[in-house]
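One such given next:

>
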Amino acid sequence: MTYELIIVQSEAPIAIVQINRPRQLNALNSQVMQEMTSALETLDNDAAIGCMIVTGDERAFGAGADIKDMADATAVEMLQRNWIAYWDRIKHISKPVIAAVSGYAVGGGCELAMACDLIVASESAQFSQPEINLGVIPGAGGTQRLTRAIGKAKAMDMVLTGRALSAREAEANGLVARVYPTEVYLDEAKKLAREIASKAPVALRFAKESVNKAFESPLADGLDFERKLFYFLFATQDGHEGLKAFVEKRKPEWQGK
């Protein structure tokens, strides 16, 4: 497919989806989100791809929503556009998605990073939800995913004041998985993506689903969900292959079945 505002690079078994609006600091408008979700969904159905990376450039991952798109919109127009549904579509990608963040991850950009499965950041990354300064609040998960990731106190601080977390602060508070120097953060994200993509495909999907379930259900329900997925994996070829390979002291050969 041909895209105008993103760049898609396939480096099987991984793929990189890069926001390409450098003059606008990679601000997210409807076209960017449509192209991105379409690309991720296409890659999700590509058997050669095991893990995807969403990124921007060194200066900005995503500098929030394009305010010009909504400055004069009515409540009904915003409801009808339903562009926040794009974040829900990213959540439903079955394969792991890594956000590789450098520079600004502001508003919708921060929410986009949090909609991915884990975040790798450069030392220059800054995460913020400054919607309060515009007289509104985060609308694509900023009050919900942020609170679950870093706790009520820190989330309240960020959402009520609009202050940013540095990469190291974000890592210390559980928002970011790994931090690297800016010149190598994307290379390190690719290494991580390749490591993840080397695992058994069905087990990867179930592992992602099970961890996400922990955010959305009481402990008892999550444990029940996890247990059922664990048992189900013993009905897969890869489940038996992995166990036999361990016993036989050899590298497993995954079939995705």
